[in-house]
Specification:
Blueprint lengths: L3 H22 L2 H5 L22 H12 L5 E6 L2 E6 L2 H10 L27 H11 L5 H25 L3 E5 H18 L12 H10 L3 H12 L1 H6 L7 H21 L6 H11 L1 E2 L2 E2 L8 H32 L1 H17 L6 H5 L2 H13 L6 E4 L4 E2 L6 E2 L4 E4 L1 H5 L18 H5 L19 H16 L2 E4 L24 E6 L3
Parallel strand pairs: 2-9
Antiparallel strand pairs: 1-2, 3-11, 4-5, 6-9, 7-8, 10-11
Helix pairs in contact: 6-7, 6-19, 7-13, 8-11, 8-13, 11-13, 13-14, 13-16, 13-19, 14-16
Length: 506
């Protein structure tokens, strides 16, 4: 017969064991002598992320608190220890010189339960290297020049939509229009489809895109758990891309490929390039990879990655750029003059060469990416035990490493008066005088953003389209200061971005 006293004793013993297990886990950094943030059970140091803090805000707190004390500090995601790197020289080693220790991105994917999660952004090791070899040739400057007319067509629709909705001067939520512009650009270039979200904001492409980026408090915890305990998460069949989102984009790719193959359709878009590699392992007759062709599942995954990466990051960058130019009219006027004068050289035609000559507009974009990097933090996973140069510390295999891009790019010792919006920071002369790891909105090294050229092209065209035809001003609903949306993967303004647009030309 089991007595209640025995049950209580067993439960009490179990609780004590759990307590000492967790205490042991939370002593990891203290035992190594590494400066660290004191954790709280059960979430470690991330309990407020997604509800009260954006992840960039938490890491900025860590960065400010521990800078100068050590090249890195320790913190905990649930009970898993992780590393936040502070020293710029160490960051550069991680991304470039010692890349072979840090070639994995510490991103969770689950090929068995969710094949579409196997994107170039997520996957690890040899799979990543092979896929990167296949995908990189689709993002050359020549390919971007080929896709530019598609971007221009969508920009003309943006121009028409704004003029149709603004009689002379109106307050509008610009982020809504810019996200619709991005949806139509990426939908056309990645999937070869006319989404028409500028005409109908409720198209499925946009609805599912928003859903993919939504980060509830629970989803943030699940993401943190999966990226800290990858093997266990896969055994538990954890998936981070919602099934309906995955099924929608996978179905779009499968149906489009089937239609094109059945009807001999050719288009100047990303999907067509991937189909060439799928069928022949070559691109325009050049061998891309000797280890196999792209599968249909891989095409679906890369198309989704292209859409998600370009959709949110580009729209938020354009949103913050317009916000800063509305607050700084002299910068806005200089950027507008740069656009108008450059286009005049090319008979008002937005050519690839014209885009490359909009140097001041590029400075505006770069300064926007400094203050508001779309991806505020980089993550890497250690592949082999790593002895940190110049220290006694050894970072163990499988630890996750965070590089706090937003915190570094808003450090007053690196960028004086960081709250000031100053595109001159990115003049040729001023850029020469900065540490190479001080500005990393697209990452660096072998795992930098493969779509950098396309992203910059899309943002240039979108901003130029608005600047050449509208004056941008703040209004009573313009946020001041910016409050970040806490439950978003990217840096995004809470409540959208209200600005006044006034026509300056037809």
């Amino acid at each position: 017969m089991i007595l209640w006293s025995d049950v209580v004793f067993l439960i009490g013993g179990f609780v004590v064991l759990i307590y000492f297990f967790i205490k042991r886990k939370y002593s990891y950094w203290a035992e190594l002598g590494v400066p660290y943030a004191e954790p709280r059970f059960p979430w470690g140091n991330i309990g407020q992320v997604g509800s009260k803090l954006h992840s960039t805000e938490l890491f900025q707190q860590f960065y400010k608190r521990f800078k100068g004390k050590a090249p890195f500090m320790g913190f905990y995601v649930t009970i898993a220890p992780q590393v936040l790197v502070i020293d710029l020289d160490l960051i550069q080693r991680i991304l470039i010189k010692d890349f072979h220790y840090f070639h994995d991105r510490a991103r969770y994917y689950n090929l068995k339960d969710d094949p579409i999660s196997g994107t170039l952004f997520n996957i690890d090791g040899k799979k990543w290297k092979t896929l990167r070899t296949k995908i990189s040739p689709t993002f050359t400057s020549g390919r971007m020049k080929m896709m530019l007319p598609t971007v221009i067509d969508v920009a003309q629709n943006l121009h028409k939509t704004l003029f149709d909705n603004i009689s002379d001067k109106a307050e509008i939520e610009v982020r809504d229009y810019l996200s619709r512009f991005s949806t139509d650009v990426i939908g056309s270039c990645a999937f070869g489809l006319d989404c028409n979200s500028l005409k109908d904001p409720n198209v499925k492409f946009r609805i599912y895109g928003d859903k993919a980026f939504g980060m509830s408090w629970w989803r943030n915890i699940k993401l943190s758990f999966a990226e800290s305990h990858t093997k266990l998460a896969r055994k538990l069949h954890v998936r981070l891309v919602a099934k309906d989102v995955s099924d929608f984009y996978r179905g779009v790719v499968f149906d489009t490929v089937k239609y094109r193959e059945g009807n001999g359709v050719q288009r100047n878009d990303f999907l067509n390039l991937l189909m060439q590699i799928k069928d022949r392992g070559t691109l325009d007759g050049n061998t891309i990879d000797t280890e196999g062709k792209l599968t249909l599942e891989e095409i679906a995954a890369q198309s989704l990655a292209f859409f998600l990466a370009g959709y949110e990051t580009s729209s938020t960058t354009m949103t913050f750029a317009l916000y800063e130019m509305a607050k700084n009219p002299e910068i806005q006027e200089k950027a507008r003059k740069n656009v108008v004068d450059t286009l005049a050289k090319y008979n008002s035609e937005f050519t690839y060469e014209a885009a490359m000559e909009m140097t001041y507009l590029d400075q505006v974009i770069n300064e926007t990416l400094r203050k508001y990097p779309s991806v505020g933090n980089l993550a890497r996973r250690i592949a082999l035990d790593y002895e940190v140069p110049g220290t006694k510390f050894v970072l163990k295999k499988n630890l996750n490493v965070i590089i706090p891009i937003h915190a570094i790019q808003n450090d007053p010792e690196i960028f004086p008066d960081p709250d000031k919006f100053d595109p001159e920071r990115f003049s040729v002369e001023n850029s020469k005088n900065r540490h190479n790891a001080a500005f990393l909105p697209f990452g660096d090294g072998p795992r930098n953003c493969v779509g950098l050229r396309f992203g910059m092209m899309q943002v240039r065209v979108g901003l130029a389209t608005v600047l050449k035809s509208f004056l941008i001003e703040t209004c009573s609903r313009t946020p001041n200061p910016i409050i970040l949306k806490k439950n978003s993967i990217t840096m995004s303004p809470q409540g959208g971005m209200w600005l006044t647009l006034k026509r300056v030309s037809e």
